Amino acid sequence: SEGSNLTPAHHYNDFRFKTYAPVAFRYFRELFGIRPDDYLYSLCSEPLIELSNSGASGSLFYVSSDDEFIIKTVQHKEAEFLQKLLPGYYMNLNQNPRTLLPKFYGLYCVQAGGKNIRIVVMNNLLPRSVRMHLKYDLKGSTYKRRASAKERDKACPTFKDLDFLQDLPDGLFLDADMHSALCKTLQRDCLVLQSFKIMDYSLLVAIHSLDQAQRERAAAGPRDHRGLGDGDGRGRPAAQRALYSTAMESIQGEARRGGTIETDDLETDDQMGGIPARNSRGERLLLYIGIIDILQSYRFVKKLEHSWKALVHDGDTVSVHRPSFYAERFQRFMCHTVFRRIPLKPSPSKKSRGGGAVPRRS
Asked: Looking at the record, which segments are called Disordered (predicted)?
């Protein structure tokens, strides 16, 4: 608590702060245009904000006050695996920075009270100023892929594959160019993950309904008008500084803004990096997507887990699979079931009657 020649004195218990692979992560930050002073200011100027949704592994999540970075606690094995990934992962991102893979900006360990708490700093996929009406964690598997009752009771639950098929059986419709660009990006990213023998990852898909937000603002009245936000009274944070940090930037190397999906009265900046889409009822949506949970290697434990599950259940429905099969199934589900090309000139008689953006749940 007395500090040192490098750190100021403080009123907390003694602790040690360790940084892993500082040179490698500095290269990562430079690749995405993050300046050292901005990075420190984002993480240290204000207290971090704890997020309510913890990961399946028990990880805790925090977000920086400027909405720029996610801070996640990781296990010792995950931290080790990430360090082994760094050289090849950097080469892939350097060649193709437009990716839906997570961007890792730093890996640290706080040693205090006999405990080691390891944290990784990543890009933030979901701006807090935009209300997410629906959120899904998708793997392309159906075995035990339905949100639990406990998860459904949360203020902002994360649903799973079977929930998506029930809520949006017709999928999400994208402009043809956008759909092509998204699928190409997913294909490249899956090849990278497959080359590292990584599996059990998910695609996080968060949906903001522009039309529902408009109805909510009208119902709230002018006094309670708070734009696209969650209604927490905060103003919209500044646009994210990191390059390629939004879903739109991650795929717009091939697909530029515009196309057959119009956002009408929304300006470009108001899209907040979301990908324009529609549901089968024609409602305007913004999608926020990214691949998550990639620090899982197909090691012996995973092989054993799949072998046991496959004995009891249909092997193709199990989410834990060999990396090549997992990647192929993941791509097929995302590009043919979740995301679909919007018809160029849909006939009114052929419009689907179902598939609302925010279905009512009992």
From this structure: 216-236
